[in-house]
Amino acid sequence: xxxxxxxxxxxxxxxxxFSLLTYEDAKTWAQDIQRVxxxxxxxxxKPADAHDRFASFRGLTEDQRRTIxxxxxxGAPEGDxxxxxxxxxxxxxxxxxxxxxxx
Length: 103
Known about the structure:
By secondary structure, the chain is mostly helical. It has one domain (2-83). Helix content is 30%, strand content 0%. The chain is built from 4 helices and no strands. The protein has helices spanning 2-5, 23-28, 30-38, 62-73. The longest helix is centred in the middle third of the chain and has 12 residues, at 62-73.
């Protein structure tokens, strides 16, 4: 879930102020993660879901929110490393490929 919802921004050199690529990263920031998940500030998702959900919805479901909040409440325990997904490939500087022109 962290890989899918957080790591595209929370990685070294990207827009987020800290990395969430490792368990140690997430544990260090667990209290802050709890605060922003409770307030629904993260992951950022501006469209209102009052009518229908967007196909590219990037927010957290209620189950995902509860999983994160329960994890922090339990002391941010480390899961089984065997359950970890493969790391995301290194991102280049530009997510959509090199631009034609940078001003």
